[in-house]
Amino acid sequence: MTNDLEPLEPAAAKQMYLDARSQELSDATLQSHHYRLKQFVQWCEDEAIDNMNTFSGRDIHRYRVKRRNEDGLSNASMRGQLATLRVFLRFCASIDAVESGLDEKILLPTTTSEDARTESLSSERARQILAHLEKYHYARLEHVLLEVLWHTGLRIGAAVSLDVDDYDSEERFFQLVHRPEQGTSLKNGKESERYIALSERVCGVLDDWLKVNHPRTIDKYGRKPLFATRQSRLSRNRGRTISYQYTRPCVYDSTCPHDRDIDECDARPSPRAYACPSSLSPHPIRRGAITYYLQQDTPERVVSDRMDVGTDVLDRHYDQRTEREKLRQRRRYLPEDERE
């Protein structure tokens, strides 16, 4: 540390960084940086690091070990976490909060296409989670959100952008609309606008949510969000928290695959559900949903249009079918006398 540094708390540094980048990053990317740095700030608090001036290369190493070993992040997730931290530390150096060059001590793990496809919600787990929610939290916010995420494969940002008026119960569909001027943008802008067909069962859950439990919240633009708390439209971060909370095995199966004492586990409180190695964010739910549709012989073009993902990206980052599964499915499209 040099005498030129000026004291700055991690939480304050995080907010300054997000403010500085708010005009150059998309809403989705900014939310992603917020989430990653929120976990970093929490770690700093746990480690009694209250001044960025004291943050060092050894602290980088300890944080990396914690995220890898205790939180069980994959290479792809680690790369994203550390890439954001590196940019953050570069910003901190520019405002004299950390030593210049500290960001260069962060080495990003290499990733492959397989690394990018490791985290995914299986159809069996999805059934267990949704059965638990249907039994104990029927037609409540957490139930209806996870039902929709699994059924549609929507990104969390697209899901929370939906209004009540974007849902047609009789015709059974959602209409996705890009509304950046009102705080609900879609990842690919106007190109992400589309209609999404819904099943009768999912519509039944949505109808009961709207009739019984929807808080009738109106946002600051006079819109009625489909997914809402009593205070506001459901945020991406709150949506992620719900996902982490209900994908923990101890919640839906009353068991822990990590041999932890469930009552004493530090991931037991809902705000710290992300600390469970088995908990999943909304994106692995999306990846699992896409894989499930493909396994059910849904044509790739249909999946691509429904999930708003290019076929090349679909194949590289989302499709988790084995090569044998693909072979068996392709064989079904051959003329009968050519299948042998």
Automatic annotation (TrEMBL):
GO biological process, alphabetically ordered: DNA integration; DNA recombination
Pfam families: Phage_int_SAM_1, Phage_integrase
GO molecular function: DNA binding
Keyword NADP on entry: no
Keywords, ordered alphabetically: DNA integration, DNA recombination, DNA-binding
Domain named Tyr recombinase: residues: 116-332
Domain (Core-binding (CB)): residue spans on this chain: 8-93
CDD domains the record matches: DNA_BRE_C (cd00397)
InterPro entries in the record: CB (IPR044068), DNA_brk_join_enz (IPR011010), Integrase-like_cat_sf (IPR013762), Integrase_catalytic (IPR002104), Integrase_recombinase_N (IPR010998), Integrase_SAM-like_N (IPR004107), Tyrosine_recombinase_XerCD (IPR050090)
Name this polypeptide is given: Tyrosine-type recombinase/integrase
